[in-house]
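quick one, 171 residues, struct below
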Amino acid sequence: MNRLQTIAIAAGSVVLALCLGLIAGFLWGGHHQAQIDEGRAAKVSEDHALALAGATERYREAERNGQRAFANIEATRQQEKENATKQIEVLRGQLRTGAERLSVAIDAASAAAAAATAGAGDREARANLLPEAAERILDFAREGGDIVRDLNACVDKYHHAEQMMQEAGKQ
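---
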């Protein structure tokens, strides 16, 4: 072998070694980068898991607060209904015993009213209701009051839910 061939073989060996070194470095670097990327992904996944857990707990707490508020609204409505029922029952008992009477204003120009109130002066002409009619009116009043309380509770629940949504939007 001559000297030129020896130099060519040496140069070829150096180039081959460099190529193999570059390939090995590229493969090792890619593997190392993959490990770094996996570590970052694990950290991001862990951060996301923590954020999700925090958001889930905030949601559950808001849900518990909402349920407590709705239960309080419902308890208030129920208590108001019971109080109104007691008041109506007391009035109903007073109507039955005659201790209380319901009356309505009537047209003083009518013949019967004019005769009954002839000497009454400026007093308003009134007619007493029969106890049965008064009880029917109390039934209407009770039902109407129940409807109003139910609607007010619905409005209160709506406003509370709206407030919860606004607070959730701020977070």
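Helices lie at 3-97, 111-116, 131-170.
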